[in-house]
């Protein structure tokens, strides 16, 4: 019963999100609603669902409730790539994509695949993967910090705005471009649900149950890196979605991965769509980056959930 109620609430939230925002004149109503707000809501649903699912999978895989895509260096790699593109100053990559988007995708995927390659080692344990992710993140962060010394004030401002996390007005073409990456990530990770259910008791238990731990670990990290790299490339690092949504679903529906993983997709889509809609109305005449809204909501909510779990 809880599952159906939660599904109905999330679908209603996604349907209402495009209607939230400043009023517009009758002449421009159709264009603003159908060409700006609807595709942006669809983008928010894709990004929110993908990030939330990857967060839930990583938390299961690493047996750590604070695990996130940043654990394997995705966010740090994307930031490094975006900063390189901003300093280069070119607008379009060879394929016609915005250069910042293309460079952030390459940086995020490149750093994450290094960690995934380490995870594929025969004698590698989860602690080794986490340490590799931290090392890659620190290396990418150090390079990004060094690049900032060669940037001027305008480039630094552009990098700061990108790092806050935003949902760009990319229209339906941007939605169609992101959809294959999100679909591959979501379908692939949901296919690992049964294996991840066994991971609850640890890697040793999973191996005793016949689960190919090394293969599952590598595929999960690789698919998660692919989806998050695409999302971060378009929208920048949107904080706390991948952390807070799995916790909310876990407290509402339970810890079983059969409901936690698909529930995270649905709730994450609705959560980010509503956060983006709220960003349009919080400040009259101005629009906040959606990453600021998710951080403002997510930080105290996460602290509250942790406090309740310890009480």
Write out the CATH superfamily name: ABC transporter involved in vitamin B12 uptake, BtuC
What structural class do you assign from the helix and strand content?
Answer: mainly alpha
The overall average pLDDT, rounded, is: 86
Largest sheet: none
CATH topology: ABC transporter involved in vitamin B12 uptake, BtuC
What is the 3D form? globular
Q: Give me the number of helical elements.
A: 13
Radius of gyration: 19 Å
Low-confidence parts: none
**DSSP helix fraction:** over 70%
Summarize this entry quickly:
Keywords: Cell membrane, Membrane, Transmembrane, Transmembrane helix, Transport. The relative contact order is 0.18. This protein has 311 residues and is mainly α.
Care to describe what's here?
By secondary structure, the protein is mostly helical. Helix 1 packs parallel to helix 12 and helix 2 (29-61) runs parallel beside helix 7. It has helices at 2-16, 29-61, 74-88, 99-119, 126-148, 153-163, 171-190, 193-198, 203-208, 213-235, 241-253, 257-279, 290-310. The protein has a single domain, classed as ABC transporter involved in vitamin B12 uptake, BtuC. 74% of the residues lie in helices and 0% in strands. The mean pLDDT is 86. The longest helix is centred in the N-terminal third of the chain and has 33 residues, at 29-61.
């Amino acid at each position: 019963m809880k599952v159906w109620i939660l599904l109905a609430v999330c679908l209603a939230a996604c349907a209402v999100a495009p209607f939230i925002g400043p009023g517009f004149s009758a002449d421009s109503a159709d264009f603003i609603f159908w060409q700006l707000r609807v595709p942006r809501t669809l983008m928010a649903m894709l990004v929110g669902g993908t990030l939330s699912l990857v967060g839930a999978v990583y938390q299961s895989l690493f047996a750590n409730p604070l695990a996130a895509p940043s654990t394997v260096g995705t966010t740090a790699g994307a930031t490094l790539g975006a900063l390189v593109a901003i300093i280069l100053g070119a607008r379009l990559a060879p394929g016609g994509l915005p250069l910042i988007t293309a460079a952030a995708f390459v940086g995020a995927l490149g750093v994450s695949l290094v960690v995934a390659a380490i995870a594929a080692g025969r004698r590698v344990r989860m602690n080794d993967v986490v340490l590799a992710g931290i090392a890659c993140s620190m290396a990418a962060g150090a390079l990004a910090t060094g690049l900032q010394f060669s940037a001027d004030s305008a480039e630094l401002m552009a990098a700061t705005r990108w790092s806050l996390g935003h949902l760009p007005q990319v229209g339906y073409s941007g939605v169609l471009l992101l959809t294959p990456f999100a679909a591959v990530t979501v379908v692939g990770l949901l296919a690992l649900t049964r294996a991840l259910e066994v991971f609850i008791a640890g890697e040793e238990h999973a191996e005793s149950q016949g689960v190919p731990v090394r293969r599952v670990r590598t595929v999960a990290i690789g698919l998660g890196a692919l989806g998050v790299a695409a999302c971060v490339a378009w929208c920048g690092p949107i904080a706390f979605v991948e952390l807070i949504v799995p916790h909310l679903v876990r407290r509402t529906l339970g810890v079983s991965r059969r409901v936690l993983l698909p529930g995270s997709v649905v709730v994450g889509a609705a959560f980010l769509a509503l956060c983006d809609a709220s960003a349009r109305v919080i400040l009259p005449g101005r629009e906040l980056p959606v990453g600021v809204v998710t951080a403002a909501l997510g930080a105290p909510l996460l602290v509250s959930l942790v406090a309740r779990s310890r009480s």
